[in-house]
Design brief:
Length: 80
């Protein structure tokens, strides 16, 4: 099965969702190349970028699970 590299950008405005996000990312740890999280205290939010390598369906599943959490926005950018 072909895989794609993608960046999953996550903006967290509800701190209660952070533990759930970490749980989902842990569930998919085998596809994660790297991740970086930045707290933006002045705006009371966090920004997380996750680089993954997986089939597009799997990446979409991860993005969808995270995007359904309260106070969380997700966008995914795929390689060509």
């Amino acid at each position: 099965m072909d895989t794609r590299v993608a960046i999953v950008g996550i903006i967290v405005e509800n701190r209660d969702s952070v533990e759930k996000i970490n749980g989902i990312l842990h569930e998919y740890a085998d596809i994660i190349i790297g991740r970086m999280g930045l707290p933006y205290r002045e705006r009371n939010m966090s920004i997380i970028s996750v680089v993954v390598d997986a089939p597009q369906e799997v990446i979409s599943a991860v993005s969808g699970k995270i995007g359904r959490l309260d106070g969380v926005s997700v966008k995914t950018v795929y390689s060509l």
